[in-house]
Description:
The protein contains 16 helices and two strands. It is mainly alpha-helical.
Amino acid sequence: MTEPDAFTPTTRETLRVVEILRKETVGGFLLVGAAMAALIVANSPARGSYERLRDTVVGYAPWHLDLTVGHWASDGLLAVFFFLVGLELKREFVDGELRSPRTAVLPVLAAFGGVAVPALVYLSVNRGGAGAHGWAIPTATDIAFAVAVLAVVGSRLPASLRLFLLTLAVVDDLIAIVIIAVVYTERLAWAPLLLAAVPLAAFALLAHRWADWFARRQWAAWTVLLPLGIIAWALVHASGIHATIAGVLLGFAVPVYRGSDHGPGDEGLAGQFEHRFRPLSAGFAVPVFAFLSAGVSLAGAGSMGDTLGDPVVIGIAAGLLLGKPIGILGTTWLTVTATRAKLAPGVRWIDVAGVSLLAGIGFTVSLLVAELSFRGNPEHLDHAKIAILAASTTAAILAGTLLAVRNRRH
């Protein structure tokens, strides 16, 4: 009897992958457009207005919410993006590829390899230097950008290969969440952190107890659950942990199924919320963050020689363009060689290499980690952003070219 392949998707899973690709593609293009607009504005006569907008402080100081518009984008708007990440992670663990060790082993181990190797590459260049704290910058994969490239050039690629990328990116996001929560928490205020458990528990209790009601009535989530989510977000922010973690926890608190009598067609509250909030995330939150974060003045970043010679730039570029594909492809090969896992029918190693290159698109989470790493060092921050944008674009071109060739073969 032939053993099932490590990541051969079911028909239902294939349809879900196609739907995710369709949704994420638009968001990916909006993300790229917003980043390009930011670069144009930041290097035009409107640069002063752009910087004043980004640095304008808005919010209530006694609640530690007197943030710049740029920080509101990274701490507030990205919480919506990470809420969707939490929803997707919950669905993968309960009803997706991550529920089965057999199907999860390849993308999960590949994701860990795709995080560890870029970090080691970065540290090998920046060890002992001022930029060493940014080791996590090249470990992230931007799922929206990567999926947009895959959708454009890979319409005929096997569904199992696309599923491999999506599962890998979801696990990559989970690792990034842990890194942000553990590594980039400089101070920890226990009182607001413990208080945050109250609205979070109330959110989870209501979402599970009245899942059908929230699924049928769209206004209910906005009037009942959203205020609880905002309170939890504010308390997590006040605790010193990056506020996007609240979005992930709230996403995990949403039930996947509506009840014990769920069937194959039951989308559940998590699926309902994903449909409702993804347009807000992909169409507004992430593009606005990209616009406010990617605006780097090339003139203000120093000479080209200084920029290219900065170990931070070299480490990020090498991590994304070399570390990511080596880590993912190498770990996948080792797993297939050392275990009973194997590639799905129709998938060749050159296809896995293309997806590994595609995972070198850092962008959104890399930009966020760069801001957390170098908030007190504007020069390193500007150089890091330039490296992220350049390396992500290069990875997209290289991966897109290779996958376009493979797409014709398939």
